[in-house]
Amino acid sequence: MSDPNDAVGDAVPASQKGSWASFLKSIASFSGDLSSLTAPPFILSPISLTEFPAYWCERPDLFAAIADAKTEEERSIAVLRWFISTLKGQYTSRNEKLGSEKKPLNPVLGELFYGYWPDVHGRGQTDLVVEQVSHHPPITAYWIENKSKGISLQGHNAQKTSFSGGSIIVKQIGHAVLTVDLKEGKTEQFLITLPKLRIDGLWYGSPYVELADTSNIQSSSGWLSSIEYKGKGYFSGKSHQFKAVLTPPGSNNTKHTYEGLWHTTSKDVHTGHTFTDVQGPKEEVSVASLEEQSEWESRKLWHAVAKGIREGDFEVASREKSKIENDQRQRRRDEVAAGTKWELKHFEYLDSDPLYEELGRLFKAIPPTEDAYVYRHNGPTFSPSPSAAA
């Protein structure tokens, strides 16, 4: 392996090249989960991982449209279209906005994030409740609901990171379940598994995310979407490619095929019609003002750290971040001394999710079982007001 000092590119601020080279060396020699490593401040995002579930619904019209589909087949197509349209926000938005992929702030246990997307043109209001349910490892649980449309998304996400072949490999752990309450009183559910990530561009100090392998969306009706991700090869190909095939219940014969670039456009292979187009504006989640937020809400908790990062004052960012982390360590020590355990606010832990097992069996999900965090329906009530701000 070449000396990381020789590979540090112009994307790294001159004052930070030493710490970046040191960080690369520590990554290359580290054998455990990389999430425990401390990254140089300049590579930190001003956004906590607890805010990431908002990326699921930056196109609320597509989320609401799932409930309007008339048949099982049409709903599976609508779910796939919405899912592909979430990928740009989840995996490239920091790259585009901040110049390269940044490491999100590692949330504290009990951190909260609340928000909503208002009702526009009768699509219904969509609400979001997020709670950091574990710190080691970092696990984020979320609930998204458009009550008027009878559609909700519940899930959790964790990451296991490792280093291989010059890239950081991120195995996403967890899943999501999308539920649609149909007008005839029935319910249709979709199990959504998560793609693997590969973070490239490290040696140049300009990291970016590429998706890898396959993820699936399995409907309780039997329809299955399998999505294969391919990134840019060493000699050819484009970044952020995908190919999705949709198969009917009890069949391996493909009914629909979609392919393209998940961060721009894709098409229906059989008709040539556009399937997804995420080049237009997205809708940021609306949240309460800082003055109205509690000390546990993400943007209030990390305000000083985020301000330091945005202003390039890495000394302030590092100092404020250490204060929060030291406070958390002390809380954990106090709990051990008192013989108490942190109580979750909005979610209940299940060591095995029966729906994951049931639907996962249809496409031989790996692993065959997973735990879950079930929403307690005790989140805040969102009523749009002049004080709400994106």
From TrEMBL:
Cross-referenced InterPro entries: OSBP_sf, Oxysterol-bd, Oxysterol-bd_CS
**PANTHER family the UniProt entry points to:** OXYSTEROL-BINDING PROTEIN HOMOLOG 4-RELATED, OXYSTEROL-BINDING PROTEIN-RELATED
**A cellular component term, taken from the record's GO annotations:** membrane
Q: What is this protein called?
A: Oxysterol-binding protein
GO MF terms held by the record? oxysterol binding
Q: Which Pfam families match?
A: Oxysterol_BP
The record's PROSITE patterns line, in alphabetical order, gives: OSBP
Provide the organism lineage as a comma list. Eukaryota, Fungi, Dikarya, Basidiomycota, Agaricomycotina
Similarity comment: family membership: Belongs to the OSBP family.
